Amino acid sequence: MRTIFSVTISVWFLTMALQGPAFAYAGPGVALSAIVVALTVVGAFILLVFAWLYKPVKALIATARGKSSERSPANSVDETEEIG
Predict the structure, then answer these.
(1) pLDDT tens-place values along the chain, 84 residues long
(2) Is the distance from CB of 62 to CB of 68 less than 8 angstroms?
(3) Count of CB atoms within 10 A of residue 80's CB?
(4) CA quadruple 36, 39, 45, 47: dihedral positive or negative?
(5) Which helix (H) or strand (E) holds 5?
(6) What region does 20 belong to: left with phi over 0, alpha with psi -120 to 50, or beta?
(7) What is the Cα Rg of the chain in Å?
């Protein structure tokens, strides 16, 4: 298995090293779009990690402060009750 992997990597590096120029041009619009897409993907990943960690960290901080992370029934307002 290790031999197949090393052969594959060697062939890939040789193929990349022996390539000629592509003679391709990406205009400024394509380049700017690629940058925006890359930044969007990075930003989405950062938001994903933040959203994934927010609830457990919030509960941990509440527990450390001695508060319950859940609402207690004594503090909740009965929705059927009229105020006023």
Answers:
(1) 778 888 999 998 898 888 888 787 888 899 899 999 999 999 999 999 999 999 999 989 989 888 755 555 555 555 565 665
(2) yes
(3) 5
(4) negative
(5) helix 2-17
(6) beta
(7) 28
The answer to whether residues 69 and 62 touch, using CB atoms and an 8 Å cutoff, is yes
Which residue type is seen at 16?
A: M
The reported pTM is 0.46
Q: What is the DSSP string of 8-75?
A: HHHHHHHHHHT---------HHHHHHHHHHHHHHHHHHHHHHHHHHHHHHHHHHHHHHT--SSPPTTT
